[in-house]
Design brief:
The structure holds two protein chains of two kinds.
Chain A lengths: L2 H21 L4 H17 L7 H22 L22 H14 L4 H11 L4 H8 L3 H19 L10
Helix pairs in contact in A: 1-2, 1-3, 1-5, 2-3, 4-7, 5-7, 6-7
Chain B lengths: L5 H14 L2 H4 L6 H11 L6 H14 L4 H11 L10 H12 L3 H6 L1 H22 L15 H14 L2 H19 L8
The chains are: A mainly alpha, B mainly alpha.
Amino acid sequence: MEAAEFAVFFKSEYPALVRHVFLRGFTRDIAVDAAQEAMIRLLTSRDDVRQPRAWIRTTAYRVALATLHDEQRRDQVYRKAATLSWPVPAVPSDKAEQRDEAERATECIKQLPERQRDVMAWFYDGYSPKEIAQMLGIPRATVDSNLRHARKKLKSLLGGADTGEEML
Amino acid sequence: MTSIDPSRVMEELQTLRRVGLPGLRLGGHGFPALLAAAHAAQGSTDGPDGAQIEKLLRTAVSGLGDPQLQRAANHGFGLDPGQSHARSMDRRKAAAATYRVSAERFRKVQEPLLLQELTGRILEAVRLREETPDVDEEETPSDCLGPWETRLAQGIASSLVSDGQAEEALKSVLARATSRVGSSGPEAD
């Protein structure tokens, strides 16, 4: 991938990639580092990466896992739902409302079982249930079921029905 | 209708009869068709995978119309209290005893029938669940994000990474990639 082409890809995918890793149960710091490492590997890869969006997500997740294992060995961090702590605010104060909603959403997502979080992380990235089943190597019915329950829970926890918008 | 392969369900039931419930308590790995059926039949993914499969199995056994077959299933899978850790052969012998046949004869005649009946019960449970969903689940989830969810997903991403941080990250990534591949690597704009 050429540098110019990569820059466009990076800008459109990087925040979502950090979100993906973060929602799968890692700290923001690990998510940021893993996302950057995945991007570097994509840029320096000599192989023809045919599905770069999926590739960087899978790679970043593996990097995050490896990082976590290193950190666990040093008894610093454990991959539990509780590690989904909200990061230092990264948005201007005039976007406080948006941040509050995002923070509440993260608080709710961390209450979901691990598999539901994994499915939601891919779903938020625009992948269909069929694609998510392929990515996670689990049956399509399991994805459907996890997705249905996760969305239902988030809807009830966040009051999605009160927004007046169709969620499910 | 959720796509669940009956032959896979039956194969996994056969494996489960052999390894017994302890095989599930390790996490339910190796039983994807049963897990998918459990999720679909119970309408929930909460709880350990193994526990969900065990619940599905117990429900299917309790749904067997023939009491003799039901007793054989309880013995064969080790569902009775204190029997879950019994050896596979001992469980089969106990199941065979309900029919007053040898373990070998039970394996050839009654056991396939039992597995077939259980498969039927499991698929029936899935079908019934899908035909009578909870009121809240009548809204079948669409395959794509709704507008509220899209806004939420964008909000999470932008709260994690501001535009300025993304710019800095891009510079850092380009520089590190360049140094990693040396002079033959891509040039940073």
